[in-house]
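fyi for ur records
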Amino acid sequence: MRKLALFLILMMGCGFVACEKQGDDVLEPTYPSPEAVIADDEACTPTAIAILFDGNAAFRAGAKSFTSTLTPESGAEPISLTKETSKLNACKHVHTGIPGDVYTVFVFATYPDGTDSEPVYLTDSKGQLVRFRIGVKLAKPEITSAVTTTDGVIVKWNSVSGASDYILEYKLSSAEDYTALEVGKVLDYTISGLDEETEYSIRLKAVDKATQSKSEYSDVVSVKTLVKASFPMVANNADEFIAILSNPGLRTATVTDEVRIMSNLDFTGKTLPESPFFTGTLVGNNCVISGVTSDHPLFASVHSAKDLTIDESCVFTSTKAGLFAALTAEATGTISNVVNKAAVTLNMTTATDTSIAVAGIVAVSDASLENCKNFGAVTYTNTAASHGGLVAGLAAYCQGAVSKCENNGKVTMSVPYLSDFGAVKSISNNPIHIGGLVAYLGANAPVSESTNNGDIDYDITHIEKIAVSCGTNRPRMGGIVGMAQSSITKCTNNGKIDVLVTTSNQSVYTTNNYPVNVGGISGGAPSDESGATGADITECTNNGEIIATTYCKGTTPTCGGIVAYPGYEDPSQTNLITRCENKAKITATTFAIARVGGIAGGSGNITYCKNTGEIEGHLSIEDGNIGGIVGWLSKGHKFEYNESYCKLSNTRAPGTSGTSEVGGLIGEHGNYASCAGEGRGCKVKCDISYDYGNEKWFGAVLGYYWGSSAVTLGTAEEPIKVLGGSMTYTEGTTQITAENYTLYTNHSSAGGKSGSKAFTIHVKFGE
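which gave:
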């Protein structure tokens, strides 16, 4: 009934607006897209795709037709359906008789002058592309490894496109019936509680709950559990350590069982065996490993490791996708006092759906990291299309606490474009995240007292070819953490962050949706409900220059000296950025709406923060905002006792139009009532330069506000203090003084464009 009600509302809106626009010939020539594109589940069948959308804005702007297009994953010709806006059901499209394939859907409006609006893709609630499977079975999954312990089997498999879940089944080899485990959308699982030294059979199938599709079973894999080995195992030289790595008994260890390195180990001229699974603790005794040349880590997995150095004579280079690091692919306990000085490089020439996670010490970590350091360069490149992945100095994926750690190695990622999202652990929708210490930080994994000194370089060179749309699933880049779902405290970034997302022909931009989120400390928390809490940033400092350039015109990119996107843009977001400082220059060039701030790009709770770093903006197309503290403030988020002492400027990116806002504290305030005391105790002294003629979308305090909500900045008891600064625009440069400061606090007081709404501001000049 809810879907039917929405459909009736959309149809009534379409009919009403169509009548209204017939007598309206004074509208400005805008080209809005259809909105609220959803699947009509009741009308979708195994051979038909039905969609609904809101066409009101397009109707008002004079659209003559709507077109919906099905794009087949196989590369076959797209299928389109066009309906004139005069039709009563113009906002409902039903495609029937569709050839077997996997389809994505987008909708656009066409206007009388032949202009098409931007396409809008059909996505789910998390912003992921919805894929319709028509007459195509799920592929047969493949179990890639099944590693036994005394009482379990660690099973891994390749991702199956379109699968929402996997069912893993096992049985005694002598039995008839399997036990089925619904393991969810993961790519590995440990079957536990098995008998020692016993044979088992294992198989797997993929399912898609939305379409009730099931794959064939994988080939059956037969395994035998092990007998418990004797520990400790001791290595006095490289040959003894190689023998230990080759011992299957490593997989029978308890977490307290140890492998002990008793002297420095030189592997020059020796070959490492295949990375083993070790379920105990590696004790390095402060020894050094040298001379390793390998295309795989020392270990596939360890529980814990401590007191070990891998020196700069070691080289780890691979051409195969996977979990890649110097010490171990995975860890589950604690890694402490481990130092890596070796370069870790993954160079690929083909796209693959295998997980990609590259780091200096551990690729995928459920372990805590304590007093660890990486000095080696970490690099991921792919000369062909890439699936999503994670790249970082210490740990690519981390679900454990990180404390007193340090990265000194350069972290580099370069690919032409993404052909699909990536999958790591239970996360199946990764774009490419990158971080100085950690690329993807899970919940309950705080980072504290850690430093990044390594530069970060992130390049996508042919973004117009991208085959995914990110929506809320944004790629994140950060000096400490890329994507963060836990707190970051007392951390410092000193490394330069250079992000370039460009088309192959840099004279044009693309409408594809890959909104970068670049932060000196963190790229930010998730943009959906899961990013509402838990990612506080406290007492952190950024000293590393940030350069962010994107040729994408999709969803809003963000950039901040501390954090790009604090989290879910909603009143429920409680993430707090407090007592942080940015001292470095930010240069942002975007061909899209963008939000750039000295502390934060997007809206969040910000208190007691300071920015002294210059912001040089080249923002264009429609709208954008730059703030000395925050680019965009809204949703009643707390904003108080912040200080901004910096240079701010904006010029249009070449060949584009549009206006942007620049404010000494806030770039733009959204149409949402301010919180109590918003702006109180803040101080500002900025030199603002603006090239948009006499539009004057700038202010010493606020760049722009357009709304009707009750907004008050500062309080009578604690007004915002303007301490000086200057304004430079077409009329020249004006120094802000006690006599003229009220003319320049916000854009409307300086005579900005009509349409701005009144709001209250408490401000004074000087201390």
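The chain has three helices and 81 strands. thats all i got for now
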